[in-house]
Every structure is written in structure tokens, then in C-alpha cells.
């Protein structure tokens, strides 16, 4: 049986506390009369300029064991430079589509053409649980719409019968064996097949161990379905933190190290003034708010919410690119502003954002000084900026500043000495053959040394005063490009601040 949805251009839009959305003609089912399964199909067309989310109601009767959805949409040719059709999809149950996600049951974006939910199981990206009677909603997200419009076909199948036994989620522990207070390596931004990745959690765990990582953070797009699938991956040698990549139309943010099952809604734009509410939700759940790839050029990727709610910022995302160079410069400007205003500063991080082969897990990796290999200790070290970022397990740094009377401060700390007190900046590098060392301050690059020998090991020292340099941070770079621009990073540190605050 097929039904035609009205073109949304003929219906009024509404704002559900956030981004514009619309509800179109839906799918109705009557209680099954001896049938094991019923299927309904609905078609519609979304015009250019569609709202961010289109909700298709599905009337679910009693006695449903499984709800299954499949969809297709057209992809007409478009002129060069014009975005074609891309349609995301997700599901909300009878508790509704209100902002905050009480009725949220899953999201697969554009990664899948079909999904199901039932009490004992669900497609990756979706949450298992009972299919209760009431009005459910399939959520369509027209990411981009071609000038010709976007014609879609949505098919819903209900299977009747006794529900399976509910699944009790088991989450990874918040502690691994660790080495006490030490430097721990982690990748805080990874995707499995629970969103648009192609790797299983077990496969990612194996790659993380091979990359020399001590911890990882799960970060699927707009879903927490993977949280209950990492317990077997964690171990004494690998701490698994849980999170989400909150993928809005105005930028992406990593919810890092939240309580298990913490869902963070993404259905708003910067102009809706809703991000602060969800940033606070991340922190209440024990996590960190980390804007991801803030200067990426893909549609919807560049960060538009400002950094007032951030706990850290991702400066290096995957293999080093021009976007990362811009992010590094912009972050350094925030350090200068913090010195000028006397306000707090924003630590930098790096992550792989790995999805599938050939993406490299642990390129780059954030190396954090933590009191132990626990969720709380790792997050505390990241929040304090006691960290540096390296391209692999082979690259290690020791960086600090000392005064003449035995004073010392390391990465993320402050050396509280007088403005004219001479201080010595020292950087020890290993695993970076042929690389150049740069020391960067609020005045810019004030020291360049190298290249490092074939062994990749070397030490540089530089003397300054707090009056001359309000902070100093280190960069280790590969050789300059053919155009003479600085080479890709092999590693960089968070700053050491100099002088009294």
C-alpha cells in the first residue's frame, strides 16, 4: 500500500524549540488481524530550502515485535559547484521528537538505507527496546537538496508477535591498570559501524593497541548505540571512554568521556541559542566539550558556536592539512587573548577521526599527564592542558621551563617568577628524524632549531624572560614544503605560561 506525502512547501513550518522542522503526511497501521507482518510505503518530495528536519509520523498499534524502515531517494545530476541530494535518517519513538531526545531511538545519517529496532536487538546506530504503541516518527534530515528537489520513498514494516527479552547494557569499566602518574596516549575521536564508520569496536581496539594507545573515546555521530558494545574491547591495557560526536548543521563537537548512555541532541543551529544547554548536559554527565575540526570546509563542519562553552579544542584532525594549520593559528590567537585579558585559556587536542581503511587510528594522538589510567584522571589532565599531540607512538616530547632557583613548570602549567627573571626553556625530542623544532610565544616563532639527526633524538634550550614571552609552546615539524611553507607537524605542545598571573 502506498501513500503520497504532501510537498512540504504547501505546509506551514514550525520551530520545535530549535532548528526549523516540519511534519508531513505519515504512515498508518491498524491492529494486525492475524497477519505476521504489514508494510506501508510513503513518497514525498522535499524542495530546495527545506527545513533541517522532516518528521514522518508512523502510527504503531499494539502487539508489534519489530519496526523496520528502509528508504531511497533520487540523486539527479547537478551543475558543477552545486550540492546534490543527501538525505539523513533516524527514529523517535512514541515519547516524541522534542529537543533533548527523550524519544530518541537512533540515527544513522546517510550511512544506511535500512534499519530495525526491537526489544532484544537493533541495527548499529539504533537503541534496542520495546516497540510500544503510539505515534512514532521517522526523522529525515535533508543535508543538501539539489535544485530539482529531493524525491524520497520511505517503507515501514511492522512485524507482530511476542517481543524478545530486553537487553541489559554492559559498559566498559572506568579504570585500566595504568602506571600511576604518567603520560598516557589516547585517540579521542573515532567512528565504528555504529555510525558511518566501517570498523567494529573490536577492530578499532586491535588497531588502538597496535598504535600504542592507552585509551580511546567512542564518538559516533548523534547516537549512543555503541556504548554497550565496548565492554569486551576494554582491558587492563586499554581504557575505553564513552561519548558522542554531536553533529549539528553549524559544526561538530565531541562529547568526551560522558556517563554511559548520555545522549546529546544535535537538532539546532547557532542562531537558535541552544548549544549552551547541551554543553552543560555534557559537563553534568562528567564529560568534556571539545569542538572538532573547527575550520573544516565540508558543509556544516565549520564551528559557528564560539568557544565560550568549550573545555578544549581539536586543533589537529587526522593527517595534517591546511585546515589544521588554520586551526593551529586560530588557537594560538586565543592564547594571546587569554594573556591580554587574564582569562582562562583553551587547551588543544588532536585525534584521528578515523572511519575506515586507510584511516590510521592514533594519527594523531593526544598524550596526557594523568594521575592514573582512569576516566576521571585522564579527563582532568586534558581539561588542565597537561598534554601534547604527536603523530604516532614513536614521537615523544619532554618540555618545560625552569628558573634559576629550581622553579619548574611543565606543559599546561605556569612558572610564577618575576617579569625580568631569566628562565630556560628545554625541549627533549625522540622519534622525529629530520624534523625542525620551533618555540612559539605570544610574539610568534622566536626560536627555530634543527634538523634533528637521523636518530630522531635531540635537545634544544632557549633562554628568555616573562617580560619577553608570556607563554611558550613547542612545535616539531617535518621539512618545509616545496612552496617554502612550514612542514606538517610531527608534534606540538600546549603552552607553559611565564610570570605571575
From TrEMBL:
Keywords: Membrane, Transmembrane, Transmembrane helix. It comes from the Bacteria. InterPro entries: PHP_domain (IPR052018), Pol/histidinol_Pase-like (IPR016195). The chain crosses the membrane at residues 12-32. One of its GO terms (molecular function) is 5'-3' DNA exonuclease activity. The keyword Transmembrane helix applies. This is Phosphoesterase.
